[in-house]
Design goal:
36% helix; binds zinc ion
């Protein structure tokens, strides 16, 4: 399988899917979207709203299972609970995983 096919297969197994079988992505609220657009525009000089909307995992167990499969494919991801979520869903981040991370110091540029 190609890398993309691998990713699609892993997402199909673990991510929250819509009725077409497409992974559902976390969407910011209007207020957050506005702040983010301003932030991104200030940083890169052009608008790119929502470029990093992330696939939703319904539970930590699903997020960890997906991370394990990505790790087997050579991609290092770390599950984290979504701060935006009321229902308690999870995402994966490419931030350095434990062992490469400085304890007690949040990674730069992360979402609040
Ligand atoms: Zn989320």
């Amino acid at each position: 399988m190609t890398g993309r096919e691998t990713t699609v297969a892993i997402l199909a197994r673990h991510a929250r899917l819509n009725r077409h079988g497409t992974p559902i992505r976390c969407q910011p609220g209007a207020e957050e979207l506005r702040e983010r657009r301003e932030h991104v525009t200030a940083r890169v000089g052009r608008e790119r709203p929502g470029a990093d909307w992330k696939v939703i995992y319904d539970s930590r167990a699903e997020a960890e299972a997906a991370a394990a499969e990505f790790a087997a494919a050579g991609h290092r991801f770390r599950p984290y609970p979504c701060a935006r979520s009321r229902s308690g869903h999870y995402h994966l981040t490419t931030e350095p995983v434990a062992g490469h991370r400085e304890a007690g110091r949040p990674a730069p540029g992360k979402e609040r």
